[in-house]
Amino acid sequence: MISVFYNIILPILLVASFGVILQKLRPSPLGFLSPALLYILSPCLVIDGIINANLPTNVSVKIVTTSITCSLVMLVLGLVIANLSKMTKDTKSSFVLASTFPNAGNMGIPISFLAFGEEGLSVALIIFVAQGIISWPLGTLIVARAQTIGWKEPLIQVLKLPTLYAVPIALFIRFINFSIPSNLYRPIDMMADAAIPCMLLLLGYQLSNGLKEINLKDLVLLNITRLILSIPVVYLITIVFNITDIAQNTLIVMAAMPTAVFTVLLATEFGTKGQYVANSVITSTLLSMITLTILIYYLTN
User: Fold this and answer.
1) What single-letter DSSP state applies at residue 204?
2) For residue 167, which of 240, 75, 63, 248 has the smallest C-alpha distance?
3) Residue 119 neighbours by CB under 8 Å, 6+ apart
4) How many domains are there within the chain?
5) Is residue 158 very low, low, confident or very high in pLDDT (cuts 50, 70, 90)?
6) Residue 173: its pLDDT value, please?
7) Residue 111 exposed, middle or buried by CB count within 10 Å (0-12, 13-18, 19+)
8) How far is residue 242 from each of residues 71, 129, 231, measured CA to CA in Å?
9) CA distance linking residue 250 with residue 70, whole number of Å
10) CA 262, 66, 150: angle at the middle one, nearest 5?
11) Which CATH number do you get for residue 109?
């Protein structure tokens, strides 16, 4: 178990900590890092991953279906827990938002790569894309429970995300078996390589903001839902869809990731409890260093 933490979790923690240290020593806004990651590096990572993936098409479809199903089940589970806990309307929306979506990008992709190699990375990229397609519209629906929000602007923002179009482009390139000229592919490969460390630096930036307005009871319940209850949920779903081996392990690990960073942006943008969700991102990320170490050790042994 120590070797799992040392070889897989610790490198992730160290790179993210550089983001924390830099923000503490040289406080500054994100500048171009966040849009560069969203509009350039992530699409290149998706294109590079799909083109080089060794996964059959039927397996890819199963992975997408499983990932989306898991999000929907977690949404229902979050609603049930929030209702049983008799949370207020805006707290309930924040709880469901934070417990539904795992950090498939900043942490999920690098951890899957370190834990399961190139095949794990290929599966993680497909999950990342599936989450990217469903997370913004579904996340907007969740926060709409607390605030009256129009649909036009959020949907326009979703359609502006290049990752959405990177998937069909990469699949088409694979389908026609087209070989991209090396002088064009090399920049894509370079930017794909830069995506993962940039994701972790961005995560470190978010962690540097610290905890505020803590509601201990809700926070404990939220972390249990996100980090622990998600594991049996996705395991049962993989059994239903007959997914095994590395694909199954990667799906389980990705589902057990801490709260996605983008949920803070949604909660803040649309008037839900942004700090409540930010507390979830910070605490679940730190606690996941323990839970993911145990989970990966179990899955790889």
Assistant:
1) H
2) 63
3) 54, 55, 246, 247, 250
4) 1
5) low
6) 86
7) buried
8) 18, 21, 16
9) 13
10) 40
11) 1.20.1530.20
- Say what the pTM is: 0.79
CA–CA distance, 264 with 91 (Å, rounded to integer): 13
For residues 159 and 136, the answer to whether their CB atoms sit within 8 Å is no
Q: What are phi and psi of 29, to 5 degrees?
A: -70, 165
- The residue with tokens 């098409």 is 57
Output the CA angle 69-97-244, nearest 5 degrees: 30
Round to whole Å and give the CA distance between 187 and 80.
Answer: 47
Eight-state DSSP code of residue 146: T
Cα–Cα dist 174/267, whole Å = 37
For 90, the enclosing helix (H) or strand (E) is helix 89-100
Which long-range CB contacts under 8 A does 78-86 form with residues at least 24 apart? 78/225, 81/221, 81/225, 85/218, 85/221
> What is the C-alpha to C-alpha distance for residues 139 and 106, in angstroms, rounded to an integer?
18
For residue 105, the enclosing domain spans 2-299
Tens-place pLDDT, residues 263-300: 876 676 665 676 788 888 889 988 998 999 999 999 98
